Structures are given as C-alpha cells and as structure tokens.
UniProtKB/TrEMBL annotation:
It comes from Hwanghaeella grinnelliae. It catalyses: DNA(n) + a 2'-deoxyribonucleoside 5'-triphosphate = DNA(n+1) + diphosphate. This is DNA polymerase I. The gene is polA. Coiled coil: none annotated. In addition to polymerase activity, this DNA polymerase exhibits 3'-5' and 5'-3' exonuclease activity. It holds the Pfam family 5_3_exonuc_N. The lineage of its organism: Bacteria, Pseudomonadati, Pseudomonadota, Alphaproteobacteria, Rhodospirillales.
Amino acid sequence: MTDAVPRHLYLIDGSAYIFRAFFALPPMTRSDGTPTNAVMGFSSMILNLIEQTDADYVAVIFDAKRENFRNEIYPDYKGHRPDAPEELRPQFSLIRDATEAFNLPCLEMEGYEADDLIATYAKQAVAKGSKVTIVSSDKDLMQLVQDGIEMWDPMKNTAIHHDQVVEKFGVPPEKVVDVQALAGDSTDNVPGVPGIGIKTAAQLIVDYGDLDTLLERAGEIKQPKRRENLIEHAELARISRELVRLKQDVPVEVPLEELKRRPLDNDRLLEFLKLMEFKRLIARFQTEEAAQEASEAAAAPAETDYQLVQDEAALKAWIDAAYKTGILAVDTETTGLDAMQADLVGICLSTEPGKACYIPLGHVGEGEGDLLSSGDAEAPKQIPMATALDLLRPVLADPSVLKVGQNLKYDLQILGRLDVPVTPIDDTMLMSFCVDGGAHGHGMDELADLHLGMKTIKFEEVCGKGKNQITFDKVPLDKALAYAAEDADITLRLHRALKPRLLADRMTTLYETIERPLAQILADMERAGIKVDPKTLKEMSADFAKRIADLEAEIHKDAGQEFNVASPKQLGEILFDKLGLKGGKKTKSGGYSTDSGVLEPLALDNPIVQKVLDFRGLSKLKSTYTDALVEDINPQTKRVHTSYSMVGAQTGRLSSTDPNLQNIPIRTAEGRRIREAFIAEPGCKLISLDYSQIELRLVAEIADLDALKQAFQDGLDIHAMTASEVFGVPLKEMDSETRRKAKAINFGIIYGISAFGLANQIGVSRTEAKDFIDRYFERFPGIRKFMDETVEGCREKGYVETLFGRRIHLGGINDKNPMRRGYAERQAINAPIQGTAADIIKRAMIRIPGALAEAGLDDVTMLLQVHDELIFEAPADKAEKAVPVIRDVMEGAAGPARTLSVPLEVEAGIADNWREAH
C-alpha cells in the first residue's frame, strides 16, 4: 500500500452537525453581536473527533445550495423545508472557516448533496482496501454500511454497523433504499407510497426480495388498500428510490489522495479561535512554552485579596466578575467527608489568581478553646442559604462560564443534593492524574507544593485534631476565610498550570472524553446508591459467628491447647514449634510469619492450617462486610452509597471506599453470599453486565497474538484452546483439570506470575510449573516479545501507555533494588492491559445514560462499577429491554478511536439480588 492509499478514511458529515450544534447550545454571541453557538458546538465536535481518531485521511463535507440533481427528478424534493433560523445564517460561512482553521479539507459541490460526496469517497476508498468511518447519524447514509464502511454517531458515541441498520430499518443496508422508496420521508418530501410506513415496507421487501419484484407482483397483495396504493403509486415509488439512492460516482473535484490528514497549524487555529472569542478552546492550543509560562504565572501573585461575602450585593459582584472572566473556581466547605450526609457550610470562589472569597452559609458560631470567635457564640452574619444558592444557580449552570474544582465530584454531590447543577467543569485533580498518573499524588497540598511552590493551610490548623477537632460550621469566620478562600485560589492557579500541559503532553483527549465527563456520572451513581437488606446481613453475621466459634474449637483441639488463633505470634509458635510443621519462616522481629503465602502451601497436607485459613476468611467477611455494611446503610435513603476514587489506582481503574464494594470476595461460596444482601427495590430488578475475559482479549490485541485473536473471533473456549496448545491435548479430549491449569496460566501471565506462584496455585511442583510457563511462551512467542518490549520501553520513557494514550508512570522501573525493580516490571506488563480495560468501561459508562434515555429507558439507573462489571436497577418491566441497549454500548465502547480486532463480549443477568444477577 502506497502513501496515496488511505489506511483509514474519516468522512465527517458537516452539514448535519451545523444544525445539531445550533440547537444543542444556548445562544452565544461574540462582542460584535455575531451569533456563535453553532460555530462553538461545531468546533468542539471537530476537535474531539480528530483527536480521537487514528484516521490518516480526513474530510468535512457540506451541502452546497439546497437545489441539486434530485430537484430535476422531483421538483418538490425538500421544497417544504423552512428557511434556516436567522441566528444560524451568518454562522454557515464561519463554520466553513472553522473547518479550514482546523486544516481540514472543506468539501462541497454544486448540484450534489453532502451524502453523495460521502458515498463517492467511501466507495473509492473501499475499492483501494481502506477502512471508512462516516461520522453521522443520518439514516440516509445507512445504505452505505458494509464490510469496510461503518458509521459513527458522535452525539450518542455509538457505532452503526450491519446489525444497527437492521434494527433501524428491518432490512440489511443493501435493502435500505427499497424500504425508504416505499415509506418515503416527510422530512425531505420524498413521496413514497401512501399508507406504507417503515415496518410495512421492510416486511414487503423481506417477502418479495426487492422493490421491482414487489411492484411487478403488487396484484398478489391481499390487503385491498395496500394493493391499490402499490399499483397506483408504483411510479412514485420508483421516483422515490432515485431520490434516496446516493450517487457513488460524483465527479469529485478534489481527489481522494488530497484528503490526507494534515497536522494542525496552531497559530492559524488560535487566530480563528481568538476571532471567535472561544476562551475555553483557546486554552487547549497553547504551546509547551505557553504551558511553562502559565505555570510560572499561576504562582505569581504573592499578595492575596481574600474577601468574606456576607450580603447579596457582595455576592452579586463576584458573580458579575465570573461572567467577565469566563472562569470560576469553586469549592465547598461542609461538616464531613460523606457527601451524602454532610451539610453545606460555605462556598468559596475565585475568578483570578490571588483573588478569592468565602461565602459562609451554615456557620453556627460555636467552638472550643482558642477556636472560639471573639467572645460571640451567636451565629455570624450570613446570606440565607436558599437566597445565596438562588443567586449562584444561574452562573454555576451557565455554559459560558467554566467552573473549576479540585476533586469536583465531591462538590457536584453536595450541590446536587441542593438542586444546584454545576456545568461545564474542569477538575485540576483529574488534569494532574492525566498528565502525571503514577508519578505522584494528586491531592491539593501536594500539587500546590509541586507546581506552585506553596504550602497550604492544613485542616487541623483550622479545626484542631483528635478528640478536640470541631466541624467546619463551628470555625470562626476569620479562620474559615483564610482556609476556604485559599482552596479556591490554589485551585485556579493549578488550573492555569495544568490545563496547558494537557495539550503539551497530548492528554487532552483522555481528559476531555474520559476523565472529565466521568465525574458527573460517578456523582450520580454515588447519590443513587444501592439497597442493602440489613436482615440478610445480620443472619449471615450470626451464621459466620457460629462457624468461627466452631472452627476455633476444632483448631484448639487439633493443637492440644487453647490459644488466640487471631494472634500471628501465638499461631506461629503452635504450628512451627509445638506441632513441628515444616516451612516456617522467621520475620525480622524473631517471630514466625503466618501470612497466606506461608500457610496456603501447608494447607494441603495439614488440616489444622486449612481450618486457620477458613477461620481467617470468615472472620474477615464478618468484620469487613456483614457487620460493617449494616452500619454503612444511610438512615435517610436506606441504601449504601460508596465513594469512587478517580485517582486511586495508577492504571486508571476506579477504587471504591466507605464502603469498599469492589473487594467483596467472589471466589468462595461465603464471599458470594455477601452479594445476596444487595437487592433491588420492590417492583425493580438488578441487572449485571460483565465484560467477558476482557483482559485476555486485550492481551491478544495489544501483544498482537494471531492465534488468540482468531480464537476469540471464532468464539472458542480460550482456556481449553490454550490447554490444547500448551499441553498437547485435543479439544475433544479436554478435561476440567487441564483446562483449570491453562486458565491459571492465562491469567497469571498477565500479572507476571512466577513458577513458584503458579505451582502453589495449581498444586504442582515448581519444576512442572516452570515447564508449563516455558511451553506457553513457546506456543505464544508474541507474549514474550510483548513483555520484553514493554519493559524495555518503560525503562527508556519511565511510563507505559494504554491503547487510549493514558500514561502510567512507573518510577521503580530502573530502581537498583531488584525486588522493587521486579515489581515495577510486572506492573509495566499488566498496566497497559488493565488500564485499557479501565478506559473502555469508563467510555461505556459515559455513553450509557444517553443511550438509555434515547431508548426511553431513562428510569434505568446505573448503581455500581466493580472492575469489569456494571450494576443497574430497573423497573421490572423494563429490565429485559435495557440489557441489549447497555450491552451494545459496552461492546462498542472502544469506538472508532481504537477499533479492536478482538470482539468484546458482555454477559448479562437479571435478578432480585446481585448474586443471582451476576
């Protein structure tokens, strides 16, 4: 394939998105009064599309004048369409200017529609063996879908392939024209045949094969009116077919070869964005030098102007300032860390570095010791909370003012409970995570020190510590002002330092398409929570308590004496001194180690050790889950509301705390029982959808393993196939034990399992385990190549990357300590796989609410994410309908940005509780 042949052609239906952008955004004007909302929406869409796609050829295609060759066939074609809104008309030419500013071909031709040009270029590219993505949701373009041509709807973030066309029209893509010819299209004034809609048309074409055959045999139609209409209006049907059929042989003026993707010209683009006064987009195109300048400027003001806002006039002045600057740092102060139960105490704002305010709303004026305000225990002067929120609500929801926060998900929760939406947003914690994931922490104190050289006021300095700590509502206003206003000020400075780095480090797409939109999704999930049955938990606790006591008694009997089974010191002495078990290892303190790595190998031959492990497992389940979860039930909602950390795992995986719902054991029957307590509300069902073997699929994809990829494409049992390859056992003779060993190797390889670890896991000698691993690498040499190249690349760069460009920094990869270096090497192998899986499920989570709403299922609620699994609650009569909608999004979540050669598959279950649904 030469340079003149596209690998991937990206055809953007520009005309369709002019109108979508116009109606999607509220009115906007630049300073000279020119309307700009459609230009803004279009520019944002184009920017996101070209940053996401891997296409090497790109074009944006527009309609020329309204009349074209179809009007010669049927003069009334599109004749009844109203004129474009007055505010949109001046934006048409500006949108074409925007396309050129992005250095993209801007194509249109007199006498033809954009769809005809798209059809022609798509046909030319496919003939050369290229892949084509048509960016549009226009049903008229669905007739083009075939092998090599897909559609992508950027509004829903979903792909349109053969199955989606069949779902829409009831026929495959090659029959769509015939269906449209019969049904007509009132939007475009395509007449069709009276009385025939899409469903009837589809059935007729399925029954008769094609339009011509149907019209020839119209006399056979049993329904009199339908037969009469088909005979009488046969010519209208044929005319309609010519109107809806796209021309694929337009004599295009710009050859396909000239659509090769060109790099952005930042200076040219910035000039256009400044002309349009698009402040938010301008920030995305600063150079690396500008990023450094911004970082220096962020820390510049040594003096601060922090103001206490205690009346409406002062608050209105700050709101006016936010409208002028177009940016507003926001932070909330509350009575606690639980976003579902904490009360709002105050709000801090900043509109420029060094200038911030604190708006007290819930201070009570009481404290202890030196934290008392000056002798006054009465509530200080404050704007009534309802009044302040009414004033703030419009600016916090205004699309022309960017709201910036640090860990803004928490603030979205607090304000969301008070019916205060906050949009659009930027989050400095997430920006830091995107550019420096794994390199350091992302809390405000650390970021302020790292990027601004500033030491922040600590919470304990304001509220005290330990038993003397007070809640923030009791902090005197002078101390509250210094602490709270600094939070907003530092956040705004960090934004100036970090935002340009997204572009400089090529992390803009990761941030804007995954991390930033996910914050609101997670806030909604956390607020929804999940119902937990305390009665079930208490019954389990009682059962576990009895079994723990029985095990303890048996252990004492086997040991010949009573001792504290939970004491590692006493247990070690019993096992290795008194009973003389082999394999004991002394720790630095002189006692025996009794961790699972020591005890598990001994359990096979020593029943007392297995009982100790069972004792520990049940004790942990009881203390961590059955006892603790009862306490975690929110007294108001009667549900459990976990909190998701977006920066808790360097691979990008979400982590769950308070309570941790991601570590509930599922490998034991007792652990699985815990999930029985998670139930649906009366009249509802829980739905579980889980990616099947996603990490193994990504190993095949990322390591480019043809045998494994083919196995997944053919729907084979991957563990049986691996066992057949490694152990030489024909698939027809495969037994469960051999398959189990292969499964352990498959998953173990991802995590860099050693021969020792594999031996313990599958119960063989270390020599046998090493032979298994060696044979695995012999059969799948690409795995070893991938591992070696990944580790070496990480040594050079200091990080690894997911398929979506997320960087995971691994500082220990060049450590002199062999143990730390070995650990980092194992991380380097696993992180791109686990990180890509995390990126994919995050992309799905962002798109699912919109897909459900589009399907009329907006009362289906996403509740939990547990690694590769999503849990939903749905009205019982809608659960079955929701599954295919969610599954389609999840299986297509990689999107056109990274089309996978290995299919993603999702398993689904519906039940009254989580265990039965999974």
